[in-house]
Amino acid sequence: MIPQLVTVRVRRSNGRRVRLWMPVVPVVLVLSPLLLLAVLGGCIACVIFQISPVGALRGAARVLWALPGTRFEMEQGRAVVLVSVR
C-alpha cells in the first residue's frame, strides 16, 4: 500500500508542540515535474554506473511500499521531531 498521510510532530525546546499533516498524493502531484526530472537523472546515473535502471526503479518502489507504518524520531537537546507515515 502506498503511503497516504505523513504526520510530523515537533516539540520545541520551549515545550510548545506543533503537529503537521501532509497528504502524500497532492504533494506528489504538485512536485511531479521535479519527480520526472529526478527519475530521468536517476536513469542517467544508472547508465553511467552500469546499474540496471529497471532494477533500481523496482528497488525504489519496494522501499516506498514498505514506508506505511514507519516512524522516525529525532531528538536534539530538548527539541524532538517525530515523523509517522500512514
**Number of beta strands:** 4
Indicate the proportion of strand residues.
Answer: 25-35%
Q: Number of helical segments?
A: 3
SSE sequence, one letter per element: EEHHHEE
| Cross-sheet strand order for the largest sheet | 2-1-4-3
Overview of this protein structure:
It is built from three helices and four strands. The chain has 86 residues and is an alpha+beta fold. The protein has a four-stranded antiparallel sheet with strand order 2-1-4-3.
Keywords:
single chain; 86 residues; 3 helices; 44% helix
Topology:
Elements: E1 5-11, E2 17-23, H1 24-30, H2 32-48, H3 53-66, E3 71-76, E4 79-85
Antiparallel strand pairs: 1-2, 1-4, 3-4
